[in-house]
Sequence to fold (308 residues):
Amino acid sequence: MFRTKTSAAGLSVLSNTLLIVLKLVAGILSGSVSIIAEAIHSANDLIAAIIAFFSVRIASRPADKDHPYGHGKVENISGTVEAILIFFAAGFIIYEAIDKMINGAEVKQLWLAIGVMAVSAIVNIFVSRHLLRVAYREDSIALEADGRHLTVDVYTSVGVMLGLLLVQLTGFHILDPVIAIAVALLILKMAYDLLRKAFPPLIDATLPEGEEQLIKSAIAEYMGHLGDAANFHELRTRKSGCERYIELHLVMSGSESIGRAHELCDHLEEDIKSKLPNAHVTIHVEPCDDECDECPGTCPPDEQTLGP
Fold:
């Protein structure tokens, strides 16, 4: 149950809706700005969950005539939009908290507020862990963003709960807006981390260094089959949602037959795909005369030798 990307996103929408209602009721009854901040945080998470729900449905569509590279970048767009929304939500929380600090406010119905925060933390522990499991399995940036939102919610809910306990024990009601500001700062950090991950693929940034090293190591394994003239260059990588696109120029001996070159390229593509899921590999083969000045070892500056 809730094992697919779409159903997991739907679970997040449902849980966030219920928690918003609980937090708003508790915040209004208690007058706690930290609980109102949590309600705003959950409302923001609900918007993020709805965006994630629709983005994973669109991103999973196969490539078509108008979108030959698929729809994967919809997930990156949703992650970027979510990060921007979080920045605005954090700013509103800080504004409200400072207003409470200046004008003063007393928190009432503390035990109700504390109980709601405890329920919120427990629900989000289970939902966030499930979302992250599905996100890592499906390599979904939209679901990962949603799961990380809810993970932060767990920490902020526990922090608010402990803060309200201190208010109950000490009578220092100013702790409530102070806690709200701390929650907002955590939200800002989460928004920054999400933006750093979601935005680069929109401008076709390269794959992470570790993934590129896997690609290079896969090519190096074919050195013995391709001969001493084997080199590669023009390695270009990018990511669209969970799809990875890899292009490279492979230099082979001019004596190799077309059939042999095609066979080796097929094996190399499958090897790269086994190391990196959802990979689409395009290899351009270039012949190299074994006696030419450029092979081996004197290739252009951007060309890389497979051998030691």
Remarks:
- The two ends are 50 Å apart (CA to CA).
